[in-house]
Amino acid sequence: MTNWQLIKNGIFAENTIFKLAISLCPSIAVTNSVKNGFVLGIAVLFVQTMVNVTVSAMRNIINSKIRIPVFMLVISGWVTVVDMIVAAMAPEAYKQIGLYIQIIVAFASILARAEVFASKNTFVPSMFDGIGMGIGFMVALVIISFFRELLGRGSLWGFAFVDFKPLLIMIMPAGGFFAVGILMAFFNWMELRGGKAPSHH
Amino acid sequence: MSEQETKKAQMGGKDMFSIVVNLVAIYLAGGLIIAGVYAWASPIIFKNNKEMREKALKAMMPEAETITPIGAWWPHKKHAEYLEAKSGGETVGYVVETLGKGYSSFISTLIALNKDLVVQKIDILHHAETPGLGDEVENPKWKGQFSGKTLGQLKLVKQEGTEYIQAVSGATISSRAVTDDNGGGGVRPAVEMLKEALAGHPPEKPEGAKGGGGH
After folding, report:
1. Which of A148, A172, B1, B123 has the fewest CB atoms within 10 Å around its CB?
2. Residue B20 touches chain A, beta carbons under 8 Å
3. Residues in contact with A149: Cβ distance below 8 Å, sequence separation at least 6, in sequence order
4. Following DSSP, what letter does each residue of A81-101 receive, concatenated?
5. Among candidates A108, A142, A111, A120, which has minimal Cα distance to A25?
6. Which residues of A touch B49 (CB under 8 A)?
7. Could you report the per-residue pLDDT of A146-167, keeping only the tens digit for each?
8. What ipTM was reported for this prediction?
């Protein structure tokens, strides 16, 4: 695959949320406003890319018996670094999303890409895979939070259109399941209609 | 299984050595990177937190020249301060930090009072209540109810009216956490505490309370 195809693969064919259906916890926990979804998406994009290039660069020197602990260490190291940088550079945003940055450590999607892709590929493809996966994750979070914030709060990015809350359940956890389920079904239906077989994993 | 994989599955002395070298090298490298970032970031983070707190205090009492701590109290065994606001050497009012137990979190609140202990305004600093319900306590209209209330009026009611504090419908627990959570936290216990403290009975540190640091 070319680099461009790797990025597209992360956004469409192997979208973390809608296709691979991993890391669903954050897709529900942080998507009740577009801002939260977007900012966490950016943080994941950065961590995923850095973890992928680090793992790829070290893939020949890591003993395969301890690769999982090493990946976890790389992930938690980068998350700690991102956490401190955001706290220092953007304290206002950190107040909102500080908690979520720390839970990136436990995202299955990041460990999964380190194991499935970065540990078997060279530096440059691993970087583009990380970028694609990160963008795909961010796009998914923004799409989910777009519908949840619009329907649940009657606002987008904090700007209110109406003075009441049209469909309050959408910003509660239960509404998160509805939104993810309906959107997942929608994207798979679109793909089937397009005549392409759904990708298997 | 290929020959190579069979070899991998067995743990030899060479393996042990490479695992130890791997882990030591990676922990060292990771530790050095994190230590470096920490050395750069921690003074900035400390400064940011201090500035944010000062900004929040200043916003509570814009007319005050200085706002200095005069004591500490421990709602829910967590350290909180009460501060005196001065302008031109005279006391113009007080700011009290308080904490109330809500539905899914502690709600931390700042209260500004004038020198006669009438509440001027409150500000919700931090909470993790249910979005759409509990977070209505952050609504300026709801918080605005506290302005001009004396100690006797700091009572939560469910009826309409302006005499007392009217609860957010559907979020009684969160409203109670801000006003008076019946467990020693909220605005009312804070004002009671301040009244006692100014009369010469400062609060005592309870057993097992978190120390003088932040919270």
Report:
1. B1
2. no
3. A32, A33, A34, A155, A156, A157, A171
4. HHHHHHHHH-HHHHHHHHHHH
5. A108
6. 91
7. 999 999 888 888 788 887 778 8
8. 0.72
